[in-house]
Amino acid sequence: MSVLLHNGKIWRSGLKEGKDDRFYDWILINDAGLIEDCGGKGHRPPEAARTIDLGKKWVLPGFHDSHIHILWHGNFLADHVNLKCPNSMAEFKEKLKMFLEDPSNASSDEISWFVAYGFEQGPLGRYPTNTDLDEVSADRPMVVYHTCLHVGVLNTLALRMVGFDENSRPKDDKIGVYPSGHEMEGRPNGLFKESALAGVMSKIPSLRERNKKSILSALNDCVRLGITSVHCLDANCWEAYVELANENKLPIQCFFSTFHDDFVGTNRPKVAGETHGPLLKCSCVKIFTDGALGSDTAALSMPYKKTDPGQEDNFGILFYSQEELTKMVKEVDKCGFQLEMHVIGDKAAEFAVTALEKCRVTPDKRPILVHCQILTHDLVRRMSKLGVIAAVQPQNVPLDARWVRDKLPEKLQECMYPYKTLLNNGVVCAGSSDSPAYYPNSLVGIHDVILQPDAPQGSTSPGCFQPKEKVTFQQAIDMYTSEAAKTDFAENFLGKLEIGYYANFVVLETPKENDGEFVDISEKPESLLDTKVAETWARGKKIFDATE
Ligand SMILES: [Zn+2]
């Protein structure tokens, strides 16, 4: 059945800034969920089986989140396992006990592990240990994740199940041990970091059913936020996605990117570009190259600022040598997969770019660098030459910029969050949330990349972090729609409201002016923070309505 939506401010992508024909007045959707026709005010709309009056509301293309951890987002939405920063060790244990007693966390044969998320060591005074968790439960294997997800703590039973007992004396600095002088000196204390944590978690028996539930709740949350397609990354989850696709449960299009650990394992697609139904595809492999700024582990070309003069120089952590990384890149590229590399510091970006150059990865392969928080001009130029896509998270700016500035040497501060510089050099910038790092509200991301406030909403007198890196409204919208779609080679059918594209769009409830008219969000981007998603449409069907 054809549907005509008219009397709207339907945003047209790819037009020059400031032109008056920025909008279509109507779009016609056909049975296949594609845009059949569209027109401005002067063009008489055609007849359709169903006609909907948009009441002059703004309509944008559906958002494409170009880097999001759907499973983790779902896990964080689940209140019954989210720790949300307890203020003391006693409160932390109390909360965990409560979670364990919650019937939705009941143990079964299939899902016996208990997993919780979101602690921070600061308010607890220290990292919890296996013995802390044993006090909560000694007879159920338990893992508790730090809010950064790069650190987890296991109880003693869980430790035993993944191969550590009282005779273990691990020598890996990613595995925590009790300090000298402690009665359990040298034994594992339950703490695992980075690849050691990933290794341990991969030994957990199937969590697939629970993962599927989390994935669905996260995707449905995305729908409420106007996201109609995602580039998603979840460890050990490909099979869960495939089952959901086969059960016809995926509400929106998922472009899956497989972690390198899974790529060399079994829970992965057999070939690059493997699809399951119309909504699931995997063409991409993700490699970590460095840590993060929060933990001073992002790899920098010059040392972090010292908090006391006696400190040794810290350049952050590179996960692989240049040779190792180049070898991995070559392998992934040879198998026909698109490359995606986590780079936060400029040194990590340098390693990634060098690996791509050495392997002669061609621009048509569209390698992705995720985060790109610090880039020198030389790196931007090389990225442009390589056809690299920068998957960025502008929500970094208000939330992190100030404390990041305190950590970085002056010279690197100039190179932070270089959105406009990337665009000016012809690098595709794709907007994303990296949820659960940031809540996947693309409207907030669009706001942040246009205005670049240097402090979170509600702070007194925020300024602009780096005026030279501000982008225009049009560029910001494109970053979260048509440009983001390029991450997944989908720009010919996603991210624009034009003939032949999927009718994926979002109807907005923008604030009103005094005269009752909706605010022009391109003129007043600050109003994006008060803008709500009224409806989300995907493939010509309304999949969310705020009034229902
Ligand atoms: Zn990520």
Features:
548 residues, alpha/beta, Urease, subunit C, domain 1, Diaminopimelate Epimerase, Chain A, domain 1, TIM Barrel, 3 domains, six-stranded mixed beta sheet, 24 strands, binds zinc ion
Structure description:
The chain is α/β, with parallel strands linked by helices. The chain folds into three domains: 3-62 and 497-545, Urease, subunit C, domain 1 (Roll); 71-201, Diaminopimelate Epimerase, Chain A, domain 1, CATH 3.10.310; 289-471, Alpha-Beta Barrel (TIM Barrel). The chain is 29% helix and 21% strand. The chain is built from 18 helices and 24 strands. The strands form four sheets. Strands 8, 14, 15, 16, 17, 18, 19, 20 and 21 form a nine-stranded mixed beta sheet that branches. It has a six-stranded mixed beta sheet with strand order 3-2-7-22-23-24, with no helix packed on it. A five-stranded mixed beta sheet has the order 9-10-11-13-12, with helices on both faces. Strand 4 and strand 5 (35-39) form a beta hairpin. Helix 7 (208-224) crosses helix 8 (238-246). The two termini are 22 Å apart.
Average of pLDDT: 92
Helical region count?
18
Bound molecules: zinc ion
Report, as a whole number of angstroms, the end-to-end distance: 22 Å
The low-pLDDT segments are: none
